[in-house]
Inverse folding.
C-alpha cells in the first residue's frame, strides 16, 4: 500500500474556526506570489480566473460556511499563509476574519460533511467541514438533491453550476500534489469518530 501523496504545492493556507470551544482548521494548498494585497500575496489560479489577494479568501470561505453555524456557539477566527521550506512550513502572512456565522440551528457536536470529488490528476480530493448544522447522516450524489446552502458550499469547492469566482477554492486551491479540483462526486454527512472521542460522547 502506498503512502500519502508527497506535498509539492508551495504554500498552505489555513482557515481557523471554533465550535463549542473546539478549534477546527480547514487547510488548503495553493501557489502564491508577492503582490500589493494587504496580505502581501496573491494566489495563482487556474485558466479563466484572475489572481485574488490572499486577504480576500477567508471571507469567501466563511461566507459559504456561515449558514451552517450559529454565532452563539461558533466563531470564525483567522487565516494563516505558510510557505513550504524543505519539510517545514514557514510563516508568510496572517489575518483575522470579519464574516460571522449566520445560521440559527443548534450545534451538532462531532459531526462532519465530506464534500468528495476528483482532482485533475484523477486522485481523490475530499474536503471536510466539522460540527455544522448538516443534519442526520446522509449521502447525496445529485446536485439537485442539495439545499441552497449545501449547494453553495459544494460549488465553492467544485463549481457544480459553472458560476464560481476567483475567490472560490475551485479557482485557486490545489491538492497536495499540486492539481486543481476537477469534478464533484458526493456530499456525505456522518459522525466523526475522533471528535466523538474527544467530546467524550462515545
Amino acid at each position: 500500500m502506498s503512502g500519502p501523496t508527497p506535498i509539492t504545492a508551495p504554500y498552505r493556507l489555513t482557515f481557523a474556526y471554533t465550535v463549542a470551544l473546539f478549534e477546527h482548521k480547514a487547510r488548503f494548498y495553493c501557489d502564491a506570489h508577492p503582490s500589493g494585497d494587504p496580505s502581501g500575496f496573491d494566489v495563482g489560479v487556474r485558466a479563466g480566473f484572475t489572481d485574488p489577494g490572499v486577504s480576500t479568501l477567508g471571507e469567501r470561505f466563511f461566507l459559504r460556511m456561515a449558514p451552517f453555524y450559529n454565532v452563539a456557539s461558533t466563531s470564525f477566527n483567522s487565516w494563516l499563509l505558510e510557505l513550504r521550506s524543505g519539510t517545514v512550513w514557514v510563516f508568510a502572512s496572517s489575518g483575522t476574519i470579519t464574516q460571522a456565522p449566520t445560521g440559527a440551528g443548534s450545534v451538532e457536536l462531532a459531526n462532519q460533511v465530506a464534500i468528495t470529488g476528483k482532482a485533475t490528476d484523477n486522485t481523490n480530493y475530499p474536503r471536510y467541514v466539522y460540527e455544522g448544522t448538516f443534519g442526520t447522516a446522509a449521502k447525496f450524489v445529485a446536485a439537485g438533491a442539495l439545499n441552497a446552502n449545501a449547494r453553495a458550499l459544494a460549488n465553492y469547492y467544485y463549481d457544480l453550476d459553472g458560476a464560481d469566482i476567483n475567490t472560490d477554492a475551485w479557482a485557486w486551491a490545489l491538492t497536495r500534489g499540486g492539481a486543481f479540483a476537477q469534478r464533484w462526486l458526493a456530499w456525505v454527512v456522518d459522525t466523526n469518530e475522533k471528535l466523538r472521542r474527544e467530546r467524550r460522547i462515545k
Remarks:
- The two ends are 30 Å apart (CA to CA).
